[in-house]
Structures are given as structure tokens and as C-alpha cells.
Amino acid sequence: MKKYSAFSLVKESFNNHLGWEKAWKKSNPKKNYKIIIVGAGGHGLATAYYLGKNFGIKDVAVLEKGWLGGGNTGRNTTIIRSNYLQEESAAIYEKSRLLYETLSQELNYNVMFSPRGVMMLCQTEHELRAMKRTCHANRIYGVDTIMISPARMKEMIPIINIKGPRYPILGGLWQPRGGTARHDAVAWGYARAISSWGVDIIENCEVIGIKKNKNKISSVQTTKGDISCEKMCFVVAGNSSVMAELCGFRLPVESVALQALVSEPIKPVMNCVVMANTVHGYMSQSDKGEMVIGGGADGYNNYSQRGSFQHIEETVRALIETFPFISRLRQLRQWGGIVDMTGDRSPIISKTPVDNIYLNCGWGTGGFKAIPGSGWATAELVAKGEPGELAAPFSLERFKEGRMIDESVAAAVAH
Ligand SMILES: Cc1cc2nc3c(=O)[nH]c(=O)nc-3n(C[C@H](O)[C@H](O)[C@H](O)COP(=O)(O)OP(=O)(O)OC[C@H]3O[C@@H](n4cnc5c(N)ncnc54)[C@H](O)[C@@H]3O)c2cc1C
């Protein structure tokens, strides 16, 4: 793999940039692999990467029914933070945030990590108390957050209206090293790294069934033929319950569409991410200048990867009191992705009822931020057959034991 550097850029410019290699190889399936990962989203690709990096396992195929990064990984609003309330969540999200800090250098691929800071608004007395509690919890876990006064917030974000008649700003929870990254680049960076090790990334290859021998998977049936494997891990976000059914068990997840929209590009107006959990909306400004606005999840289960007018109206209405300037913006585009929700709004990284099948799902509305940490933890689970410290709390067993990791108010998304 050619190293990307200022030197290689200058060198290639003398060759009309014709010498660049493809970032990853298009592969056809072999007959057999040690490990098959289903789903070439960020989590699946990161799992393959840490299997190779941390455990030296490179006899791996990543199967993708569409195109690489075409699921939620390429559809999210790219917010990265780790200011969660529960200890188990803070551990995995903070691990992930830390990995993001050096991911561009590690992958030799610019993932455009921008730790511009994430501000979570407190717009009711109840929310102010809850955020203070989260702030204290964060301190105990070593996650760097502080509470901000309304006056300080106005200095930091001059375009914000702190005196809204219905939802005035009473304070904010500020994570200075939270921020954003370029979502596609995260998938592409991991793909390029694993492809250079010989991992096969096979696009347009849908898994349509599995063959079992006793309680073990022996091969995976795909639209490109049967492929045998020693272990399989599925990481298919919104399609997790469909995949589980193919494997012969059920999951406590529901699939719903989550939507977002962007405005036309404008000059820089806001240099951090703002989340308004009470009214359900959040916003940041992309490097191109578009205001990236995240909306709510549909109130009914569905597999629709599209936006709807109702959500644009709801989301913009929610934010307009706090950000009056958005009333004059034109919308450029909107879209939807299918997210997989668990009852406690925490993910599942787990063994399954089938001996050699593993599972990573349930990231719901907030899994982009978790890609590196989740890949790290899932790789450990798959390689060793047992979860490590990060993954252990997120097993399927917690639903039987009633040991929920409740993060239902962690996001600025109604769900
Ligand atoms: C609108 C929106 C905004 C969001 N905003 C944020 C945010 O700001 N911050 C944040 O942290 N998170 C956010 N999220 C959530 C985040 O995008 C997801 O949690 C994360 O991307 C999930 O990644 P993944 O790799 O698990 O899934 P995906 O990227 O969806 O990848 C799964 C892949 O599996 C493939 N697949 C499915 N079934 C099969 C099969 N049978 N055979 C082969 N392949 C299959 C799919 O085609 C897909 O490519 C948002 C999500 C949406 C939709």
C-alpha cells in the first residue's frame, strides 16, 4: 500500500495523479475463511481491523450486501462524544473517542477528526439537574466534561438565543474534546488498511442463509455462493433482527428510520456541535458550510431509508426558537437510515445461542462515535470467544437478567 504523504502527493502530481492505487481491492469470495464478518459498515470494518492489529488474524472476509459504508455509517451526522451517564457506556465510548484522536495517523488516512467540542443544552430545570448528575458521573469515570452557564454559552456560541420564551437556556454540559469526523473516511480508512493485509472485502454479496452443523455454523449462504468459516460475526445495524432470524434466534431490537437534513452552505457561524435533548434536535456546521441537522426517529418500526416532510418540520420547529437564523436557510437534502434500537438504548456485543456466531448491534441513533471502540471490543470477543472488559456488560444475557444499561436520555433524538 502506498503511503499517503505530502511527498507522495507532490510526486504523483508530476504523473497527472495516474499512479494512485485503488484504496481497497474488489475481491471475489474464496471457499473458506477463518472468520466471516457480515456488514461492511464502520463497526464491521473496524472489527476486521482490530482482529488483524491486536490478534494477528487476517484470514477474514467482510461481506456486504450493498456498497461499503452505504448503511448508517454513510448516513449519520458524525457526532463523537463520550459524555454518557452509565459507567459501562462511558468506558466504551471514551475508549472510542481516544482512538479517534489518533486514527488518521494510525490508518494513514485523513478521517478529519475535529474535536471542536460538544455542547448539550439544558432547557428545563429537570434537564439541568440531570446534566449535572451526568457531569459528576463523567468526572468519576475520567471523562472530561464541565457545566457551562448561559452567559458563558452565549460567548462561546454567539448565534444562540438563550432567552427563548418556551425553552430558555439554563446551562449546558460541555465536552471540549468531543466533535465530529468524516463518516465515509472512517469506513474507507479501515477498508484500505485491512485490504492491504489481504482481508477480502466483498461488496454486492448478501448473506441469505446459514448452514449449521449441530449448534455451530459451518458455512454462510450468499448471493455469490456458499462460503465456509470457523466463526461468523454479524454487524448489520438496522438488519440485525433479519440476520438473527436466518441464524435461528430472536433479538430484543426494533428497526426504525432515523432522519437528518443539511442546509445550503453558509459562512462559518458555529464552531461546535450543539445538542438540544429536550426539544429533540441537534446541529453542527460541516467543513463545506452546510448546517447539519439531526432529527427524530420514526415512531413506528420500518425499513425505510428515506426522509419524510413530517420530520423536517418537527426538527426545524424544535430548533428555531434557540437558533432563529435557521428560519432563513434553504434545505439542500435530507435522508434516512435504519437504526436498531434496544430497550435500554445500549448496544449488544455478544456471543449468541449459536456457538461460533457473534453479534454486534443495537447502537441505535449513536453508533458512529463508537466505531473504533466497538471494533476493538468485538475483535477481542471474536478472537478469544469470550468478551473482554469493554464488551462484557453489553451481552445478550443482560436482557434475561434485567441488568439494563439505561441510556434512554443520552441522545438528542426522540426514541
Ligand atoms: C440519520 C442518522 C444520524 C445519525 N447520527 C449519528 C451521530 O451523529 N453520531 C453517532 O455516533 N451515531 C449516529 N448515528 C448512528 C450511526 O450511524 C450508526 O449507529 C452506525 O453507523 C452503525 O454502524 P454499523 O457499522 O453498525 O452499521 P451500518 O453502517 O448500517 O452497516 C451495516 C451494513 O450491513 C449490511 N448488511 C445488512 N444486511 C446484510 C446482509 N444480509 N448481508 C450482507 N450485508 C448486510 C448493510 O448493507 C450495511 O452496509 C446516526 C444514524 C442515522 C441514520
How helical, in percent, are the residues?
A: 25-40%
Q: What is the structural class?
A: alpha/beta
CATH H-tier superfamily of the largest domain: FAD/NAD(P)-binding domain
Q: Low-confidence parts lasting 5 or more residues at pLDDT below 50?
A: none
Task: Give a quick account of the main beta sheet: strands, pairing sense, barrel closure.
Answer: 8 strands, mixed
Q: Roughly how many Å apart are the termini?
A: 43 Å
CATH architecture of the largest domain: 3-Layer(bba) Sandwich
Bound molecules: flavin-adenine dinucleotide
The number of helical runs is: 11
Strand content: 25-35%
What sort of overall outline do the alpha carbons produce when their principal axes are compared?
globular
| Mean pLDDT across all amino acids | 95
CATH topology of the largest domain: FAD/NAD(P)-binding domain
What would you note in describing this structure?
By secondary structure, the chain is α/β, with parallel strands linked by helices. It has two domains: 27-78 and 183-252 and 345-401, FAD/NAD(P)-binding domain, CATH 3.50.50.60; 114-180 and 254-342, 2-Layer Sandwich (D-Amino Acid Oxidase, Chain A, domain 2). It is built from eleven helices and 18 strands. The strands form three sheets. Strands 1, 2, 8, 9, 10, 11, 17 and 18 form an eight-stranded mixed sheet that branches. A hairpin with a 4-residue loop joins strand 14 and strand 15. Helix 2 (42-55) packs parallel to helix 7, helix 2 (42-55) crosses helix 10 and helix 3 crosses helix 10. The termini are far apart. 50% of the residues are buried. Bound molecules: flavin-adenine dinucleotide.
